Amino acid sequence: MNDTKSSSPFLASECAEIETTLQRKYAVFAGNRRFKLDGQADGQSVALTLTLKNDDESFFYPVEGRIAHREQGLIQRNAAAMLLDLIDSYFQEYLVNGGEVYLPLDWQEYEVEGNKMQLRGQVQNLRLEKMADDLIAGH
Q: How far apart are CA 10 and CA 41, in angstroms?
């Protein structure tokens, strides 16, 4: 799969419902952080990004996943559900373990029920990054 593909929004109608479900599921662990789900799909693959962040974005953790559904003979919607389950499983492990479990920065392949998917993630402090950018820009 390639990082620069032409794709369209995917699961847009379900994103808010999924975010609410995840928020309820992890309320004890998430604290003041919220989930945001985005998806893209084309005829070959599905890509999802589930971000856990706080309001000022001093904690911003996007977990990206992708799956080449066509080459694996999967229906796009089923592939997206499998990918979302894998990302959800990761966040469960991450949150239950107090944030001590991290994904690699580069794509890492995972196999679930014989299907190959890839995940990556990086915790960021976007608030601090913006402050640094402003400082460098002379503001």
A: 6
